Amino acid sequence: MTEAVPNAASAAVSVSLRIIPREQHTISRKNISAGALRVLYRLNEAGFSAFLVGGAVRDLLLGGRPKDFDVATNATPEDVKRLFRNCRLIGRRFRLAHVVFGNEIVEVATFRGSSDDGSGDRHVVDGRIVRDNVYGTIEEDAVRRDFTVNALYYDIADFSVRDYVGGYEDLQRRELRLIGDPVQRYREDPVRMLRAVRLAAKLDFRIADDARAPFDELGELLLQAPPARLFDESLKMFMAGSGLKSFRALDASGLLADVYPLTARALAIRSGGTFRAMIEQGMANTDARVVEGKPVTPAFLFAILLWGPVRAQVEKEIARGTDMNLAWIRIGHLVMNEQSKHVAIPRRFAIVIQEIWSLQPRFEQTQKKRVFRLLAHPRFRAAYDFLLLRAGEGTEIAAIGERWTRAQGASHDELAAQLNTAAVPVAVAPVAADESGAVATAPKKRPRRRRKRTAATPTSAE
With contact defined as beta carbons under 8 Å apart, do 61 and 174 qualify? Predict the structure, then answer.
């Protein structure tokens, strides 16, 4: 059966149903979550069509173990709500039903329609779909999806896989191809360009030539995307175990400059090689932690991505005579504000990022009181890990990192004794040193101690 289905998102898309029976594909119900199976079975028993769809089907066919399972059905969100007491309806742009089973949320979407007869709820601004709650058939739903490999449906009624747009063949070829006209699909939702890069990196797929070609022309449309969505997409890109490949693919695609312009400019200068190595090492470390099931935080990765711009501007500020601490605070705010125009980094992460940055010069200090204060700082570990990543900036930074590593392994009394003999981190800034290379520590200033004993004279802030 072949028919042309009119689509608001793409001009006449050829639809040809191919059914892959159970014995010809590798999907097993053992690899589908219990919650998803309960939703599928109950919808089916109630007389509705029910399909596992999207990334879960794609990943199961590739031999993976999906974490999230989405269901597509001809039941409306209100129908789903009536069937499941543990259901809540969400979304304005796309009305969805979330069925909650403990820590698992199964997302249920009604088949999306192509044409609106006025009874639905669709709103388009400058070619972008900003709200879309028009329901239709499974064929219409298939052509409304973004990539062919994401338009595969697993039918709980007979355990077959349904393919309407050639996604099964593209999956076997490991090719990422858009459904419909790429330019029009990207204009509808520019974030699809980032999704193409992310999925290609994650799955080790190639982006089809016609899907890759519009990036140069349409990349600037990402400026119109909600910064909060770009933050969410960045998390999927960099914190799901394929961050290094995603960063390289994003840079190679030319889209890095549209999402992280400050980073792209810093990489383009002559010293950008050191910055690039730092980013890639940070991404590789994060990927390893994800694979090992260890916790990761967006703050650390964003601190790395924006380190080049912030460091360069702080150095200029200090050269102009600005106090070092004030320079870090001022430039940190400026860089975060500028980046937030593109990617909305939540304040709880922005605070941590700026603390990681501002603690870097404090690793250069040698006074015992300040060293112990830094060791007790709540962000010390993150800032220390960041310092180790900076080792490629020069031998001085590498030496500081090594000495702080030793400092953490020493007892309190041992470290205190080392500090008394100036055996702890050497400052990067010019400091007098004797012929053996030991730093000459300045004598304690007695007048300062006398001022502390005078109640009327305020002490200076460190």
Answer: no
- Measured distance CA(34)–CA(19) in Å, rounded: 25
Overall domain count for the chain: 2
Beta strands 18-20 and 161-163 are: antiparallel
218 contacts: CB under 8 Å, gap ≥ 6: 183, 186, 187, 190, 193
Q: Does one domain contain both 354 and 217?
A: no
In a shared domain, residues 358 and 384: yes
Beta bridge partners of 108: 71, 97
Name which of 367, 339, 370, 369 is nearest 354 in CA terms.
339
Asked which of 420, 435, 456 is the last residue of a domain, the reply is: 420
Give φ, ψ of 87 to 5 degrees: -115, 140
Q: Which of 224, 244, 277 is the last residue of a domain?
A: 224
* φ, ψ at 62 (rounded to 5°): -85, 0
**Tokens representing 77?**
């969100």
pLDDT higher than threshold 60 for residue 437: no
Q: Where are the alpha helices (DSSP H) in 341-428?
A: 347-359, 368-375, 380-389, 395-409, 412-420
In this structure, is residue 456 part of a structural domain?
A: no
pLDDT band at 434 (very low <50, low <70, confident <90, very high): very low
List, in sequence order, the alpha helices (H) in 46-137: 55-61, 77-83
- Taking only the tens place, the pLDDT of each residue in 92-146 is 767 899 999 999 999 999 999 875 544 444 444 444 444 456 789 999 999 999 9
**Residue 6: CATH number of its domain:** 3.30.460.10
pTM (two decimals): 0.81
List pLDDT tens digits, range 289-331: 999 999 999 999 999 999 999 999 999 999 999 999 899 999 9
Q: Are 81 and 145 contained in the same domain?
A: yes
The answer to whether residue 440 sits within a structural domain is no
Query: What residues are labeled active site?
Result: 68, 70, 146
Looking at the structure, tell me whether residues 295 and 407 fall in a common domain.
yes
Q: Which amino acid is at 92?
A: R
Domain shared by 247 and 384, yes or no: yes
Across 390-416, average pLDDT: 91
Is residue 461 a part of any domain in this protein? no
Return phi, psi of residue 30, to 5°. -65, -25
Instruction: Assess if residue 177 is contained within a domain.
Output: yes
